[in-house]
Amino acid sequence: ALLAIATVTLGLGALLAWALVPDPTTATVIALACVSTVFYLLRSLLTFAHQAANRMELLATTVVLERLVSLVIVVVLLLAGYRGLIGFLLADVMGRAVGLVYAMVAARQFVFAPRLPLGDDLREIRQSFRGGIFVRIAAIATVLVTAVGRLSAERGYGIEVFGQVALAFSLVNIVLTVVTPISLAVLPNIRR
Fold first, then answer.
1. Which of 8, 43, 89, 95 has a CB 3.0–4.6 Å from the CB of 100, allowing a cystine?
2. Rounded to 5 degrees, what angle do the CA atoms 165, 156, 17 make?
3. Phi and psi at residue 84, in whole multiples of 5°?
4. Cα–Cα distance between 177 and 148 in angstroms, integer?
5. Could you tell me if 70 and 94 are in contact, meaning their C-beta atoms sit under 8 angstroms apart?
6. From CA 80, how far away is CA 15, in angstroms rounded?
7. What is the pLDDT of residues 146-184, one digit of tens each?
8. Crossing angle for the helix pair 24-52 and 2-20, to the nearest 10 degrees
9. Is the pTM of this model over 0.85?
């Protein structure tokens, strides 16, 4: 259910990008990023469930397959003389789509499991939200802040300032990448 909420939210984000962003290239980049993220989230649910069961082969195979498909498409585009951004983004989306299909086929016992009654689903959603919604909102907010900062620096300043701002945000992002999983692991223990 949380996955459905994320998918709908990203779908609406892609539609808003198409409607509100005047530059068609920027709107396409945002829309493709949303589609790629949806594929990633769906695939992650399957691979993380297997990872929790100590079955790492699905995650490893899926990631390698995603990257290989993307790499083959990028090489073909480069050999054909294509240098546009949209084609490379489409290669990433195609790689993620192939990885998702593979993960769904490999984890079909998980994908096609019998549904729980609606009451149990709602109870699980409520517990999930109470468990980590604020940590997740904080993680999403950090990504949004860095993206808006980079976009502002790109549009308002020269390449040198943009490079400095991008480096600073990248360093902050590295720290947050380490802190966020730790906070997700520690939060349930704090609640007890």
1. 43
2. 90
3. -80, 150
4. 18
5. yes
6. 31
7. 677 767 766 777 767 777 777 787 787 777 777 766 665
8. 170
9. no
